[in-house]
Design goal:
Layout lengths: L2 E4 L5 H12 L3 H13 L3 H25 L6 H9 L1 H33 L5 H20 L2 H32 L1 H6 L12 H9 L18 H30 L2 H4 L5 H9 L4 H39 L18 H17 L2 H29 L6 H4 L2 H16 L2 H21 L6 H8 L1 H11 L3 H17 L5 E4 L3
Antiparallel strand pairs: 1-2
Length: 489
């Protein structure tokens, strides 16, 4: 297995890259339709608002990380602030949110595939979803190293279709300024009744930072680097989202985008409609890129979700089956299988919109707890703090924004989320007295494991391209590479 070592402390560029890698994935292929459907071109403003909310909530996480730097994550913060039950509730909500997100991508995969194969019947769609999940299970059980290599291959080809789409779309807009301009009129929606649900579904595209915390001691000048990296990282993601959506609206009207199950492929088709051979090539590249991006995002998500269940089991708060390690591949294989089977069931019976909104509701529960835990952690772990760490406006706003997200979810999503959280109570009652699996827990939160997780994060989607820019700069300037991976059997 490759052993990751840190050659030097993480710089602003490094941590920004980690933030980008934690957030961005195939979300742009999934969430764009709903902004157009509910708010039309005004959804571009909502992409900015959701990004600002994500920055504030992420800064609340950073404040917690500065107070409790050795063990990151909302589960650890709530547990340290209020005890094991609070930690379990937050960890359970996070696990559920990530699990629900896993169910989103088989549905999205089938929707993009259906653009090329429009006659897929329900049985065929179910079979494809099953094969999709089976691929992810096999990849993850064979080990983190295998999963990491798969993700490396996938990330190389993810950006090419989006760059192609943006280039083709911009050429269309330049050649047809009148048509493109008409797609932004009217800019304001006739009413703002759908603002809340659009905000929830668009915010889903920014989620990911909640499980990306890096210990502050690994970061150079952490007190200033962490907040700057969060702002820069989420700003990069927001610009990426804005450019892509602006091109979408320039090429295709809001009414059509709102009904497109595969908006980027449909827009590519529209932009190249004047030349049939180019349509075939463009749609094929963007469509295949979408399928690969969706698969890659779910593969990465399954790694993180299985490790979260592993952490809860290691603390004696989850069935020990989630911490059972495969004797050969050294992965929590039973936990992976359980989460995959249940996510497959949710993918078959759940709608994309309900799954995304339910995931945001469950994430927002963890966000509220994280924002509130700042004040308890300050009392339990008093330490000199910088100006931004000491301010209370950040966690207060983080809690307010999180509550807004909860309240904007539909009654179905709220009821589903509350029921799912309630199911965790008997699980806690049954498993909380169990002795901690100390060896497993230490293996999970050791410096080596944390570094390995951060290293993989740098290889995700847009962060993969940024990493190459960073490495090229270091080679030119002669500075040390941040990471070193040594193969070790």
């Amino acid at each position: 297995m490759a052993k990751i070592t840190l050659q030097s402390q993480l710089t602003l560029f490094d941590v920004t890259n980690l933030v980008v890698g934690a957030i961005i994935g195939a979300d742009i292929y999934v969430a764009s339709q709903y902004g157009a459907l509910y708010l039309g071109p005004f959804s571009l403003v909502v992409w900015v608002i959701a990004g600002l909310m994500a920055i504030v909530i992420a800064l609340s996480f950073a404040q917690c990380a500065s107070l409790l730097p050795k063990v990151g994550g909302p589960y650890a913060y709530a547990r340290a602030a209020w005890g094991p039950f609070a930690g379990f509730v937050v960890g359970w909500s996070l696990w559920l949110a990530e699990w629900v997100s896993l169910a989103v991508f088989p549905v999205a995969f089938v929707r993009y595939l259906a653009f090329a194969l429009p006659n897929l019947d329900p049985i065929s769609q179910t079979i494809i979803k099953g094969l999709f999940v089976l691929f992810l299970v096999a990849t993850n059980i064979f080990g983190v190293r295998a999963a990491g290599r798969t993700n490396d291959v996938l990330t190389i080809v993810k950006l090419v279709p989006l760059v192609l789409f943006s280039a083709v779309g911009l050429l269309f807009i330049i050649a047809n300024p009148g048509v493109a301009g008409s797609h932004f009129i009217p800019f304001l929606p006739s009413n703002f009744g759908n603002f809340g649900i659009a905000l929830v579904l668009i915010f889903w595209a920014y989620a990911g930072f909640e499980i990306s915390t890096i210990p502050a001691e690994e970061i150079k000048d952490a007190k200033t680097t962490i907040p700057r990296a969060i702002v820069l990282g989420i700003a990069i993601v927001a610009v990426f989202y804005l450019v892509t959506n602006a091109v979408l609206f320039g090429v295709r009207s809001a009414s059509l985008l709102g009904s497109d199950n595969a908006p980027l492929v449909a827009a590519t088709n529209a932009a190249l409609s004047w030349n049939h051979p180019l349509v075939l090539v463009g749609v094929a590249i963007v469509g295949v890129g979408a399928l690969i991006s969706v698969a890659g995002s779910d593969e990465s998500g399954m790694i993180g979700t299985s490790r979260l269940g592993y952490a809860l089991a290691a603390d004696g708060l989850f069935p020990s089956v989630f911490a059972k390690i495969h004797p050969k591949y050294k992965t929590p294989y039973l936990g992976i299988i359980i989460q995959a089977v249940t996510a497959f069931i949710a993918a078959v019976y759940g709608s994309l919109e309900v799954l995304m909104a339910t995931s945001v509701f469950l994430l927002a529960v963890a966000y509220v707890a994280t924002g509130l835990s700042v004040f308890w952690l300050r009392k339990k772990f008093p330490a000199p703090q910088s100006r931004w760490e000491a301010t209370s406006i950040i966690p207060v706003l983080g809690v307010i924004f999180s509550v807004i997200l909860i309240l904007q979810c539909g009654i179905v999503q709220i009821a589903t989320g509350v029921l799912m959280l309630a199911i965790g109570i008997p699980i806690y009652i049954k498993y909380s007295p169990k002795k901690e699996l100390t060896d497993i827990k230490n293996a999970l939160i050791s410096r080596e494991v944390i570094l390995e997780r951060a290293y993989r994060q740098e290889s995700n989607f847009l962060a993969h391209a940024l990493r190459h820019v960073k490495n090229a700069y270091r080679r030119i300037t002669g500075k040390k590479q941040t990471w070193q991976a040594n193969d070790k059997d």
